[in-house]
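Continuing from the previous page...

OK, I double-checked the sequence for protein-tyrosine-phosphatase against my notes and this is the correct one:
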Amino acid sequence: MRVLFICLGNICRSPTAEGMLRRHLEEAGLAERVVVDSCGIGAWHVGKAPDARARAAAASRGLDLSALRARQLDAADFSRFDYLLAMDHDNLVVLEECRPVGCQAHVGLLLDFAGHRGRAVPDPYYGGDQGFEEVLDLVEAASRGLVEELRRRLEADA
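Thanks. Re-ran it with the corrected sequence; updated structure tokens here:
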């Protein structure tokens, strides 16, 4: 099973989601069965580490994002991943526009897995530290729901 998180530049929200899901998969004993990655719609930050504020907020909750590097969405991602999860509606629109005909991947919003159907993870980039904490709270709730979805699918495939 393969999961890809997508935000605008891949330096705040999507790497935070990647780190959080990795942790929850470890806790659930599923880390060896699920590949997790993140990317951005744009190429502004390709090769760069996550934003220092995102790294600091994540570190305060025991998540180390320092090894992650930004990359841009690639057309091949639609065939490589089972789930492509956008952080907001603008990202989702781009995914739907780029989605190849016949793509079987689940393309949707991350927060649907937290019971917040249709809600976006707000971009904390231009705000203060509280925005990064809110992202962590939202991503954590969605990550827990996503782990349960992945567990069900993996058990059904077994």
